[in-house]
Design brief:
By secondary structure, this protein is mainly beta. It has a domain of about 100 residues. It is about 0% helix and about 35% strand. It has a 23-stranded mixed β-sheet that branches. The chain is elongated. The chain starts with a helix and ends with a strand. About 50% of the residues are buried.
Length: about 350
């Protein structure tokens, strides 16, 4: 699946353009679809409808201030990214709306960029499998996704972090996504499925870190009404911190294989921390740490501490030999293996080791 996302904005590098007047060290500019900016810019107009991408950032260490304006695409065209950062470092994108693209804001490669004050809504990936997130990071590190709203993006996530660890498939960008911060965002109603129109067979998450992420931080976000899981750490995630989030009423739309959980940590990862989250009223489990699956090790050496997980398992579980019944607290490893569960508040649990030092309410 991460390889699919490697193409999320493949053609956006074709964008090019020009600018206007300098004001206080930044350009106050009237822009149009397909332009590239190379200096700090304050947008003076709405941009769109764009059918082949919005604005590309063409230089490091600049700021693109949307100044309250909107950049919008043409659904359901193959309209790529609204704002695209390819190999950029130290860029800030802020203060406006990006909608109706395949992905709202896309960071591919580079490092140390900031996206803040952006409303990324109604960005729905093309049926060819390109895009599908409000804000997406691909093989990039030390970015800050802070204080944004992601609403009704599909079919993958409101905010997605992806890694491609090889340079195949015609793309030069490769590497693990590490040390990214996703903090203080409103992630609401990301639930449309792969058909791009309904919630049928949705696997749309609020916030997802796909395979091979390392040391990313997901903190203080409000994640509500996602199609499948609220926050999902895919296989081979290491040293990730999920802390201080409110994760509520996710997973009510999937009708095959399983419902959606509040926070789920998949197999083969280690040393992930799930701490001080409010996980309330999700359709499947509240906090679900996956166990051994065939030859794949479970998620181990994690710390699940001081969370409140109540009122989950809100729908009957879908019978499955892989996922099984749901609980507020669930660890699929026998005797929790090397995971530490401590000081959580809960109502239901699948085995005693998840209740250590906790309180049943």
């Amino acid at each position: 699946m991460a390889k699919v996302r490697a193409r999320l904005v493949a053609a956006a590098a074709l964008l090019a353009g020009s600018l206007a007047v300098t004001v206080g060290g930044a350009e106050a500019a009237v822009l149009s679809c397909g332009q590239t900016i190379n200096v700090s810019t304050v947008l003076e107009n709405d941009v769109g409808p764009c059918n082949a991408g919005g604005i590309t950032i063409g230089a490091d260490n600049i700021t693109f201030d949307l100044n309250g304006h909107t950049i919008f695409g043409v659904p359901p065209a193959l309209d790529l990214a609204g704002v695209y950062l390819l190999g950029r470092t130290g860029v800030t994108v802020k203060n406006g709306t990006v909608r109706n693209f395949d992905v709202g804001v896309a960071i591919e490669g580079g490092s140390g960029n900031t996206v803040t004050g952006i409303v990324a809504r109604d960005n729905i990936g093309a049926s060819t499998g390109i895009g599908g997130d409000g804000i997406a990071i691909l093989s990039s590190s030390e970015n800050r996704i802070i204080g944004n709203s992601t609403i009704n993006n599909a079919p993958f996530s409101g905010i997605g972090i992806y890694s491609r660890i090889d340079a195949n498939h015609g793309r030069a960008t490769a590497g693990r996504s590490t040390n990214n911060l996703v903090d203080g965002n409103q992630v609401v109603g990301n639930k449309i499925g792969r058909n791009r129109f309904t919630t049928q067979d949705t696997d749309n998450d609020g916030i997802r870190i796909e395979n091979d992420g390392v040391a990313n931080v997901i903190s203080n976000n409000f994640v509500y009404d996602s199609g499948l899981d609220g926050i999902a750490l895919f296989a081979d995630n290491f040293d990730t911190i999920v802390r201080g989030n409110t994760v509520q009423r996710n997973g009510f739309y999937r009708t095959t294989a399983r419902r959606g959980s509040g926070i789920i940590v998949f197999n083969r990862g280690a040393r992930n921390v799930v701490e001080s989250n409010q996980v309330i009223g999700n359709a499947d489990s509240g906090i679900d740490i996956r166990g051994v699956l065939g030859v794949n090790a479970g998620a181990t050496a994690g710390r699940i501490v001081n969370n409140t997980a109540v009122g989950n398992s809100a729908l009957p579980f879908i019978p499955s030999p892989v996922f099984g019944p749901s609980f507020d607290l669930k660890d699929g490893n026998v005797n929790c293996d090397a995971n530490t569960w401590l000081g959580n508040r809960y109502r239901t649990f699948n085995q005693p080791c998840v209740t250590t030092g906790g309180q049943q309410v």
